[in-house]
Input
Amino acid sequence: MLELILAKYNYWIVIVLMMAGLYVVVARGNLVKKIIGLNVFQTSVFLLYISMGKVAGGTAPILTGKDEVFSNPIPHVLILTAIVVGIATTALGLALVVRIREAYSTIEEDEIDEAESLDMTADLAERRR
Amino acid sequence: MSTLSAALPHLPILQVVVPLISAPICFLLQRAGLAWAFSTLVSWLAFATSVMLLRAVMADGTIHYEIGGWAAPWGIEYVIDAANAIVLVIVSGIGAAVSSYAPRSVLAEIPASQRGLYYTAYLLCLAGLLGVTITGDAFNVFVFLEITSLSSYVLVAAGAGLDRRALTAAYNYLVMGTVGATFFVIGVGLLYMVTGTLNIADLHERVPPLLDNRTVHVAFAFIVVGLGLKLALFPLHTWLPNAYTYAPSTGTAFLAATSTKVSVYVLLRFLFGVFAPTSGLMALTMDYVLLPLAVIGMMAATVAAIYQYNLKRLLAYSSVAQLGYMVLGFAYGSVDGLTAAVLHLFNHALMKGALFLALGCVMLRVGDVTMHGVRGLGRQMPWTMAAFVAGGLSLIGVPLTVGFISKWYLVGAALEDGRWWIAALILASSLLAVIYVWKVVEAAYLREPPAGRTVREAPLSMLVPTWILVLANIWFGVDAELTVSVARTAAMGLLGVAP
Output
């Protein structure tokens, strides 16, 4: 059992990070913390891709003319793109949080929900008018 | 002329690159009027390109385009067959209609400093949607999906000038959308781990023999759930009602008619163009997970729509129900079912485009798109409300509209499979749709307008694009030969059945 865990330790790290990230997204009410959770979640996927490209005993994929075992560079390149996507998402998410704070004066989910139910009541009042 | 003929073989890449390059140019234009004119021009160019591609595909079969001359599987390949050609046409067509309609509506709904940026985000979204549809590479799908998503979060958040809830709607959409896209990319990574390829055509050869492989099962689960989030499959639809309600009118019209449809297409492509399950766990998933969720979504969302007071939210719930119809179509897994799904994908984009554009006209003149706001509008804005009623009839599935064609094929496919209870539920949900459309009709035509409110009909610049979509609803409802033949070719292509 222990051997199974140790031999595939990279996947265990991925799974732990993935679950931790998702948990933060779901369980935390603070909008910035949710974005951080999303980040951790995405990072776990980066690790999944990067570790899958590794070939035991392989070197960097540089053309030397010699027959060498090298790691698969494609997952690494893919993840460069995914990192860019992750940064863009984080930036946009945080920008939205800034705007939300300006509009609601809070970044706590429950307080925002309260403010929104007040908005809803205002809509209803307008309906009766 | 010579430049045109030189450009012809490169249409597949131009389809995506033109809107993509135009987005930063649009940003540099700054002034809203210029940005609008430019983005409209680009949208019509994209529409022309997609029509040419559809004609070429229907005449000569599948087009393969190697980007930069790098042969697949080393390079990224764009593959256009009937299934994605029709999605390209509907996405760029709706884009052209919505952007022609946009200037007055954007002027009224979006603060001056953001208008140029709004058109930029729209162009990025268009480029992303076209890219997702056209590409033949699984990872490229993810990249374009994220371009689309990031720009649609911006389009939703642009409604903040009218209602601050647009911001939280965009935030929730961002969280759910990112989780969905990340699930999708996990699935793609696992498939790459097993097969060593990202090219969808190669995956289609290598995955089916491995259908009992557990990694493939996990990949399947991640991809279906991830795309389910993106396409708002019940019960993963919770981001959608708020996003559609609080986005600016033009943003809602564009997103509602295109973005979920493109996700449906990607799910279709992966279910049939990669996994192609005929038996085992995955085929059971179609029967016992997708099918029941589609049916529950179709009923529950229709009932939810009946109770809505805000018409944009009403149409949003109706969208969730309609997405249920599409998923239902391909959960049958038969040629007829898939034909119905592709057909409804096209038809529903026309209906929702027309309906949301009509609501945009109401928003411009009355500033209130609730049951209260539309009271008495039947006489004050006859053309706008007539467009809404025509779209509503299409949504119900009245003969001579596209909705009827969709329902006809969906019910036919269900009966052919011997699933008469599903056919009965489709009809029941259509009857329920009568209720929510009737509620709007009643408010608009049978109620008196609030005392002292005088509104004029919407300007022609908005009525004409709205009515073009309404007429398309009727045109393709009367003469469905073109759409049905394309949808059938698409379905056969996806299932790998010889015509």
